[in-house]
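Example S7 (structure tokens).
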């Protein structure tokens, strides 16, 4: 039982173990499956891991590439920023240059417009000058013609008239030169231009104005003087010659911009002395002369004050340009302000003097003048204005070398300037103005201008007061009164006029008779000359009919008959036929030459037709008949045509370029292209042209050989025929000349007016020693 129980327990244990084994097997199977699943999962996860690692590595590479790209981009951005800055700078520079270019272009446009305007003005001036020149030439020619009609007693006024014209020329030239110098002074008054003679130009301008006004005064006096006073101007013609030469030389130097103002002013000073002497000598004191003199003084006063204002303004500009500006400097602005004030006062004085000049000009045009006491006021005014102008000019001339001194270490001070001004005033005005203090130059000038203002007020009151004026009368021009006097002296008596009329009629009748006699004699001379020509023609005809020297004429005046006359006539006819043939050949040659010239012309239509004429010719050439030789061309011209065609072929034929026949784009050369662009076509074409020329040459050679054989046979036949007929030449000659009105020689005799008396038995040879019968027609 115990064992049974153990056995049952063991069986139960065995069952349990079997269950456990089954469970273990199931677990084992489950474990294996789980292991497989886990292994698959591990493999999958491992693949995912490797894939992630690959992606990470790829992403790292991409990140590195992106970082590299980013660094490049940063560098590019940096470069672009630097380039942008450079471009901004260059843009600013280009904008600046563009602005400069636009400004320059506008300036060039303005200059171009000014140039066009000046060119138009120059053209208008040129036209006016040419018209003026034409009128001057016409006037000169008119004067030259009219001078021939003037009697000899007008020669006494020749030199005074030339002196008057010279006064006008001198005045015009001085005025013209003064205007040009005034323009140069305006250019030299700029702060940049510091010429050493810039202030001397004002002195030159004053002297030119003085000469111009004095010449105007001379002209005004001459137009209203008497004949005796006008005759005194005869010597002035030669005394004015050096003055005009000086002005001509100065104008030429001014044209070349080589004018020396100081030297010219010195030369004009001598001219002023000469003109002053002429004025004192030739212009007597009178009311009209006094009026002209006062007007001259008024204009000079205005000129002096204008030059004073210009000199002071120029001096101020020079001081402003050359002197340094200091902050604590008070002397400089005060000095410049004082100079500016003086310049303004001078301009005011100029305006007042201009009003006085206009008012006095109105008085002078109304034939009114001032008394001698009143005229002294204008003289004092003119002297005071001249002294002020000279002081202002000398201040500038003495300060300019001091300011522009080269090699100066220290800058110039205002004390030195004031001292130099004081020395200048003391040297210029000390003898003439001892009552003024010359230590202060500007104060001295202010006092002088103030004193001049008083003179101007007095002159203004005098010129406006009609109670102090004197009326005068100007005489007519002396040449007008002189001409009237001479016309009144030319009184002719009636008897003298009648005698002159009778003598003129007799002279006309005699001249008419002589003219008729000349016509009759000229007609007789023409008739005699015509008869002489007729006799000469008859003599020439006789000479030609009898021979060159007349030795062939017989004693009986007839030509002897020769047995060989028929042979000579035949020879003459053969010679004429040969000449006609040669002329025809020359005509044919000229026609062929003309045709060849048209053929060789590359633009000729005939040449194009000739080149394509081979298309019109048949392939089989027509046979040449024996009768067609007369219409053929000469062998020489045809051979020349062959040679010309060969020359044309050598000129027009060119070497075939194989490369030019290939396609230009390098495509297939076996592709289709026009036949005329192939090498074969050009080669065959040139071969065809050569074969045509060769065939033409062979035909000409063959024809010439055949023609040569024919001519040889013909010449042999003619020689044999000549031998056979030689015995009957004389009889044939007699029968040939049996009729009188046939033959070339008979017609020639009739044309020359010669006939035969009877029919001779034998006809003489032309030019033989037998006689010729002459019959007058």
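Recovered sequence:
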């Amino acid at each position: 039982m115990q064992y049974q129980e153990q056995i049952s327990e063991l069986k139960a244990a065995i069952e349990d173990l079997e269950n456990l084994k089954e469970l273990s097997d199931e677990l084992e199977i489950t474990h294996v499956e789980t292991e497989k699943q886990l292994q698959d999962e591990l493999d999958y996860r491992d693949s995912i891991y490797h894939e992630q690692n690959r992606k990470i590595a790829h992403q790292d590479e991409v990140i590195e590439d992106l970082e590299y790209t980013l660094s490049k981009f940063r560098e590019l951005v940096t470069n672009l920023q630097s380039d942008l800055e450079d471009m901004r700078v260059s843009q600013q520079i280009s904008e600046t240059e563009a602005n400069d270019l636009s400004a320059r272009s506008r300036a060039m446009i303005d200059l171009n417009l000014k140039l066009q305007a000046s060119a138009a003005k120059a053209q208008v001036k040129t036209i006016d000058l040419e018209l003026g020149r034409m009128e001057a030439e016409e006037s000169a020619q008119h004067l030259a013609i009219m001078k021939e009609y003037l009697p000899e007693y007008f020669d006494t006024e020749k030199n005074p008239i030339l002196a008057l014209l010279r006064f006008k020329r001198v005045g015009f030239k001085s005025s013209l030169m003064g205007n040009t110098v005034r323009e140069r002074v305006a250019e030299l008054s700029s702060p940049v231009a510091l010429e050493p003679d810039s202030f001397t130009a004002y002195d030159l301008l004053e002297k030119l104005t003085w000469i111009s006004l004095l010449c105007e005064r001379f002209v005004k006096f001459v137009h209203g003087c008497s004949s005796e006073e006008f005759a005194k101007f005869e010597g002035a013609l030669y005394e004015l010659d050096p003055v005009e030469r000086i002005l001509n030389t100065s104008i030429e130097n001014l044209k070349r911009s080589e004018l020396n103002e100081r030297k010219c002013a010195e030369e004009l000073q001598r001219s002023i002395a000469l003109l002053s002497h002429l004025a004192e000598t030739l212009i007597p004191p009178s009311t009209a002369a006094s009026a002209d003199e006062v007007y001259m003084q008024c204009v000079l006063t205005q000129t002096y004050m204008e030059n004073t204002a210009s000199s002071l303004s120029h001096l101020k500009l020079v001081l402003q340009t050359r002197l340094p500006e200091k902050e604590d400097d008070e002397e400089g602005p005060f000095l410049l302000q004082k100079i500016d004030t003086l310049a303004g006062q001078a301009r005011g004085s100029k305006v007042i003097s201009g009003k006085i000049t206009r008012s006095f000009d109105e008085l002078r045009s109304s034939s009114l003048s001032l008394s001698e006491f009143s005229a002294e006021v204008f003289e004092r005014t003119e002297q005071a204005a001249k002294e002020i102008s000279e002081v202002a000019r000398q201040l500038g001339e003495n300060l300019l070398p001091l300011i522009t001194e080269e090699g100066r270490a220290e800058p110039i001070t205002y004390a030195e300037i004031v001292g130099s001004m004081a020395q200048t005033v003391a040297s210029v005005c000390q003898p003439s103005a001892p009552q003024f203090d010359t230590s202060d130059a500007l104060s001295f000038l202010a006092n002088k201008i103030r004193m001049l203002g008083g003179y101007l007020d007095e002159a203004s009151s005098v010129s406006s007061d009609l109670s102090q004026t004197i009326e005068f009368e100007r005489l007519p021009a002396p040449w007008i009164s002189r001409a009237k006097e001479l016309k009144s002296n030319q009184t002719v008596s009636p008897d003298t006029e009648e005698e002159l009329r009778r003598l003129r009629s007799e002279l006309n009748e005699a001249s008419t008779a002589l003219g008729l006699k000349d016509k009759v004699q000229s007609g007789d001379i023409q008739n005699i000359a015509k008869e002489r020509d007729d006799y000469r023609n008859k003599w020439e005809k006789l000479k030609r009919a009898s021979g060159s020297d007349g030795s062939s004429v017989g004693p009986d005046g007839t030509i002897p008959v020769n047995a060989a006359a028929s042979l000579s006539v035949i020879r003459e006819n053969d010679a004429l036929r040969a000449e006609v043939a040669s002329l025809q050949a020359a005509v044919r040659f000229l026609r062929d030459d003309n045709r060849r010239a048209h053929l060789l012309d590359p633009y000729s239509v005939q040449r194009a037709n000739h080149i394509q004429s081979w298309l019109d010719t048949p392939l089989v050439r027509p046979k040449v008949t024996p009768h067609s030789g007369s219409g053929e061309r000469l062998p020489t011209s045809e051979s020349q045509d062959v040679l010309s065609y060969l020359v044309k072929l050598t000129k027009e034929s060119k070497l075939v370029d194989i490369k030019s026949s290939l396609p230009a784009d390098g495509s297939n050369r076996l592709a289709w292209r026009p036949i005329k662009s192939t090498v074969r076509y050009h080669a065959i074409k040139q071969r065809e042209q050569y074969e045509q020329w060769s065939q033409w040459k062979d035909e000409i050679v063959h024809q010439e050989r055949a023609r040569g054989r024919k001519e040889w046979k013909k010449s042999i036949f003619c020689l044999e025929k000549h031998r056979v007929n030689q015995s009957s030449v004389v009889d044939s000659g007699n029968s040939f000349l049996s009729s009188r009105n046939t033959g070339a020689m008979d017609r020639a005799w009739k044309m020359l007016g010669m006939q035969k008396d009877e029919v001779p038995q034998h006809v003489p040879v032309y030019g033989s020693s037998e006689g010729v019968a002459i019959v007058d027609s």
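Notes on this example. Residues 2-147 form the longest helix (146 residues).
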